[in-house]
Amino acid sequence: MKILIGMLVYNEEEVISQTLSSLYKQDIFTNNEYEVEIIIVANGCWDDTVKIANKSLANFTLKTPIEYKVIDKQEPGKVAAWNDLVHKYSNGNEKYIIFMDGDIVIQESDNLSTLVKSLEVKTDALISTDQPIKDIELQKSNSLSSKLSCSFSGITRKGSSQLCGQLYCARASFIKEIYIPPEILIDDTYIKFMACTKGLTQPVDHSKIVNNLYISHVFEAYTGLKDYFNNQVRQTVGFSLWRIFKEIINDDLKHSNAIEIVNNNRLRDPDWLQKEMYKYFTKNNKKWFIYKGALRVRFDRLSRLSLTGKLKMFFPSIAAWLIDLAVYTIANRKIKNKHIQDLWPDTKSKKLGALNRPLTNIQN
User: Fold this and answer.
1) Are strands 67-73 and 127-134 parallel, antiparallel or unpaired?
2) What is the pLDDT of residues 54-109, one digit of tens each?
3) Dist CA 239 CA 232 (whole Å)
4) What is the pLDDT of residues 235-255, one digit of tens each?
5) Which of 75, 162, 226, 253 is deepest in the core (most CB within 10 A)?
6) What are phi and psi of 12, to 5 degrees?
7) Same domain, yes or no, for 293 and 327?
8) Which domain holds residue 219?
């Protein structure tokens, strides 16, 4: 069975060695059932990420022969790197593609094989995931920001068919149909709904994503107020653009699905969505672009908790909602003024090196 592991990286010299070290411990490499290839796509890096990755992979192949390549792509942007990985750099005969970021630490040695096996068992599912765990959940911290960050992670994990773009496995036959328009800034949201709604033509089918709750990876959380705030602005802009995209293609969905609509239009004109969004922004002197229902999100998540959970998280949710008001105001201004090109600045994940150990006592 051919498996492609595709890693998308951007200036990860501080942590990519730790990420690859946790990858090499995966039992998928010692199981003769799997033929594994690793492709690392470095998009717009100006540090030593490519050099470190090449050296690390070369040393690893001395022990376990595998195919690998590191692509030094000059164009920045995760979506562009994702599209190139799927449609340009993969060889086309993979059964599954495992996507991962270059700044995470995989916790269990059977993580990747579990992702694959869960799709082998659940043949109607298209994607499988593990649990994303913030590094601060493995640390003893009494700071208010850490406690709030961990609490909101618990609320998020209550949702069905969660898809974190940091690490997931997808059927190649499905994922190769997907092209993500560059204007869609949040790749995991796009992929999730293409999978769960059959290209936005059916109600959400949560069974299309298998969430494996007992395998995990660790990522460095935003704990500083400024970093947290900026991240919320980025996520709000991305999800708002996703909603605008759905409005733009709504009439076409009567005759086709979103996957086909995107593929047909981009072949006709690669800039079609950019042009349609410009029309949308200027139509009727529109002034508010944040997605409908944004102010209900915190309380929708709160409603899924038990009574005890509701009481515990009520005041933190109120506090977060007040922050949301400021987030939405700034996010709307960025969309309105087209200031979205610099929303994803370089981030450094320096603390993950010490977290390459088994995960225990995390409540799901």
Assistant:
1) unpaired
2) 999 998 876 667 899 999 998 888 899 999 999 999 988 999 999 999 999 999 99
3) 11
4) 888 889 999 999 999 999 999
5) 162
6) -110, 30
7) yes
8) 2-223
